Amino acid sequence: MSDQKPTFDPGLTQQYTGALSRTINDNGQFNVHRRGGKLRDIHPYLFLISIPVPLFVAIVVGTFVIVNLFFASVYLLIGLDHLKGAEASNLESEFLNAFFFSAHTLTTVGYGNIYPIGAATNSISAIEALTGLMLFAIVTGLVYGRFSRPSARVGFSDRMLVAPYGDGLSLQFRIVNRRSNNLLELNARVTLMTVESVEGRLRRKFVLLDLERDQIVFFPLTWTIVHPIRPESPLYNKTAADIAEMQAEFLVFVKAFDETFGQTVYSRRSYLYNEIVWGARFTPAFEIDKTGDLRLEMDTVSSFETVALPPGQ
Q1: Which pLDDT band holds residue 250 (cuts at 50, 70, 90)?
Q2: pLDDT reading at 92 higher than 80
């Protein structure tokens, strides 16, 4: 049995097969493109509540049009003489009348200007009405699912900073809640991912960085998350060139309790080695106004000023 202790891996594999553009994209999603799989692997509900709003609206509208085109074609096949009030002088007008009758039936509006005659047409319109009830019930559930799903809107500073900290240095970044809901019991974790040579082979290495404060109770303002660069830090005595050579990427994971939804929410972000500013510190993002209230400027979460680093750093 081997006595070698397993190394820390957050789930991103230690195998090195090439340089990554980044591990976590700016939208918080992992930079992984899935290939293969089967159709049954796709969950329609998860897909439809996760896609962007414009695509969701396009799918709903497209489905509505396609269903109406289908039933309009069926009515034309049966014959418009079975749709009272739908007769027209040309095929184009007849199709439009059948299409709009289908739309009225699917939505159960039923203006009464066109109505079915005969068993076949009435049967098709009844099936379409039932189809409309089911489709709109599904769409209503999807819309509710999209609106009711809790999600964090945590804003991250554009850059990490290497700033003075006591007699040494620290690595810092700043976050802010960009929504008006209350986030409580925040926890933050920062993992340093590097590429190092192990027994002549390049491998990824992950180190969980110690933070000055890894949790806070309330989050009404900004939170500057600080990693002190002490002798035990993997960044100690490292320069910008050293960090670039290691292909360093800092993976940030934030967890909080959303008071509005009563659920835990998560947010992710990563910083590459070239997104670090050396010799800077964040400028204040909030102030007390004339009435004694705190005023937070969310657009200044990334604002910083240059400062001199301690000698020898």
Answers
A1: very high
A2: no
Encode pLDDT of 35-51 as tens digits. 777 777 778 888 898 88
Per DSSP, what are the bridge partners of residue 265? 256
Whether the CA torsion 233, 238, 243, 246 is positive or negative: it is negative
Mean pLDDT of 46-73: 94
Question: Which of 78-104 are b and which e, b meaning 16 or more Cβ less than 10 Å from the residue's Cβ?
Answer: bebebbeebeeeeeeebbebbbbbbbb
Where is 226: in which H helix or E strand?
A: strand 222-229
Contact between 243 and 192 (Cβ < 8 Å): no
Question: How far is it, in rounded angstroms, from Cα 195 to Cα 171?
Answer: 19
Q: How many residues does the chain have?
A: 313
Whole-number Å distance between alpha carbons of 209 and 232: 10
Residue 282: Cβ within 10 Å count: 20
Are the CB atoms for 160 and 169 separated by under 8 Å? no
Q: Phi, psi (5° rounding) for residue 91? A: -65, -35
Q: What's the token pair of residue 72?
A: 């309009």
